[in-house]
Design goal:
The chain has eight helices and six strands; from the N terminus they run βαααααβββαββαα. It is α/β, with parallel strands linked by helices and 264 residues long. Strands 1, 2, 3, 4, 5 and 6 form a six-stranded mixed sheet that branches. α6 links the parallel β4 and β5. The structure holds iron/sulfur cluster.
């Protein structure tokens, strides 16, 4: 059997191995540190359709194509969200499509990619979702749409992990190197780019190596207290937060014994 890893899992492990243990090993409820919105989902779907279904016979689509795609995705939205989403997509159009001489067909839109890595005799399957993958002259660019109102203060280390996971998976899937990961902020029209290098892949391989040792042998899941504790859904169970932490709920998944670990 294999052990499934995502960027969110790697980032949680990097932030705090104990939070990782609560969330992914014991399956405690709690959104942890991540989440998404209905409007955000509709915007992502509309953007996927804009690139996926355009015929590419004309160099760039008109605004009517943007409005058409948006109107396909509004069933679950309130009237104010529909207006807001339309204006966000129109801003996107002016910032990222109208200025270009042509809209290039992406390699892929809105999907999942997988890679794998064997460490300590464990098969790790790395899985990531992408919004869009574009061709560059010397490799690939991964596009991540951001619908949040404010620009993420994403920790650099965590962004590096995400880049490393995609680097590895894209290399295995397409035999091409990831050159850039770009965050497109839909509400502001800003684009923030991060260069991707083989060192990102090496960082991920090293972290997965640590995790493999934890799973195979240590089983310590040492808490690493920090700013993230204010947003941690598991603080009441955490020995770093309380001298007498609450016992885990009865429906928590049983802790893996050595035998279970060996059969992952
Ligand atoms: S409260 Fe802090 S130290 Fe404890 S599990 Fe959560 S993030 Fe880790």
């Amino acid at each position: 059997m294999s052990y499934l890893l995502s960027a969110a899992k790697l980032q949680t492990y990097h932030r705090c191995p104990r939070a990782y243990y609560f969330r992914y090993e014991r399956r405690l409820e709690g959104s942890g540190f991540f989440g998404s919105t209905v409007l955000g989902t509709s915007l992502h779907q509309a953007l996927a359709q804009i690139y996926q279904d355009w015929h590419y016979q004309d160099p760039i689509p008109g605004m009517d194509w943007i409005d058409y795609c948006w109107n396909q995705q509004i069933t679950d939205l309130s009237p104010s969200q529909i207006v807001e989403g339309r204006s966000i997509l129109r801003r996107y159009y002016h910032a990222f499509i109208a200025k270009e001489s042509s809209m290039r067909k992406p390699l892929a839109v809105e999907g999942r990619i997988q890679g794998s890595l064997r460490v300590e005799n464990l098969e790790f399957v790395l899985s990531g979702r992408y919004d869009r993958i574009d061709y560059l002259d010397d490799g690939l660019e991964l596009i991540d749409y951001k619908s949040a109102k404010e620009i993420d203060n994403t920790d650099k280390e965590e962004m590096d992990l995400q880049i490393g996971l995609y680097y590895l998976a894209l290399e295995q899937r397409y035999r091409r190197n990831l050159r850039r990961m770009s965050l497109l902020y839909l509400r502001t029209g800003e684009k923030i780019c991060f260069e991707a290098t083989p060192s990102h892949r090496q960082r991920v391989q090293s972290l997965i190596g640590d995790m493999a040792v934890e799973l195979r042998r240590d089983q310590r899941w040492i808490p690493t207290p920090g700013d993230q504790c204010d947003r941690c859904a598991y603080a009441r169970y955490c020995p770093a937060m309380r001298s007498q932490p609450e016992p885990l709920p009865e429906d928590a998944r049983p802790a893996r014994g050595l035998q279970l670990v060996l059969s992952i």
